[in-house]
Amino acid sequence: MHRLTLGDFELTILSDGNYFLDGGAFFGVIPKVMWSKRMQPDELNRLSCGLNSVLVRGAKKTVLIETGIGNKLGERMKKIYAPEEKLLNSLHAVGVAPEEIDVVINTHLHFDHCGWNTVYRDGRAVPTFPNAKYYVQRGEWEYAQRASERDRISYISDNYNPLVESGQMELIDGARGLLPGISVDVYPGHTQHLQAVSLESNGKRACYISDLIPTTAHLDIAWGMAFDLFPLDTIASKKRFYARAVPEDWLVIFTHDPKTPLAYVGITNDGKYVAREVAEKSERSAV
Ligand SMILES: [Zn+2]
Fold first, then answer.
1. At 194, phi and psi to the nearest 5?
2. Residue 194 CA, ligand 1 centroid: distance in Å
3. Among 77, 139, 239, 250, which lies 20 to 30 A Cα-Cα from 279?
4. What residues contact residue 138 under an 8 Å CB cut-off, 6+ apart?
5. What spacing in Å lies between the alpha carbon of 190 and ligand 1's midpoint?
6. Which whole number is the average pLDDT over 65-72?
7. Which DSSP string corresponds to 64-106?
8. Helix (H, G, I), strand (E, B) or coil at 173
9. How far is 140 from 158, CA to CA, in rounded Å?
10. Neighbour count for residue 31 (Cβ, 10 Å)
11. Ligand 1 centroid, distance to 282 Cα (angstroms)
12. Is 0.85 surpassed by the pTM of this model?
């Protein structure tokens, strides 16, 4: 677990555990001889990937960015993904009760990003964070209602529809501020309406970039996932992101990186994007 200070915010990376993704799917058109130098697959070609959420404290609100894979997968899906379902334990370990979460932000609605939005109680999906206001892009939610044959399996409506119906989840349109120092921006590619979450305080900025750049192994412009619905948009969005994140030294938070959930991104003289570990002692400590 990582905890760091960003201006007035305290950020804690909370894990929902690891899960398996197919190595080929995770690296799209990149040959295995190349990606296997960065992440080692098991004998079934699976990669053990992270599920990193962020708890943001210090402002007047307690905010949770992303809610992991959750505990709603059926038996067949559980066999494939092997979810560890740890997020609520991780939250408990830092002394925060689900009732204390004021705001939940989902970057998109794939089941590995909003799984703990709700839990089943007496067969009904109810909010895990009863006092929270949830946010997602309206376009993402609308797409989820009529997802294509290609990615229908990525959506579990009980993760969000009950919240939209009760008014607890607010559907937002495009880039926007949500709270002082906390804003979202849309980066199309993985899905059309994927939103990244930016945190800014005292001149320092961090960005939860979600599936636009899922791990530090995906920093190269062309290293996208096969899951991306709009791979050329992924490339354009990455360029737009780096155009600010690199010169302005944003701290980047990687949703599926099992080892390096956060890093700065630099560029070498020959144009290669590289992760720079967060070195300052005050910014990172084991919890
Ligand atoms: Zn996704």
1. -60, 130
2. 8
3. 239
4. 171, 172, 173, 193
5. 7
6. 98
7. EE---STT---HHHHHHH-----HHHHHHHTT--GGG--EEE-
8. coil
9. 15
10. 9
11. 32
12. yes
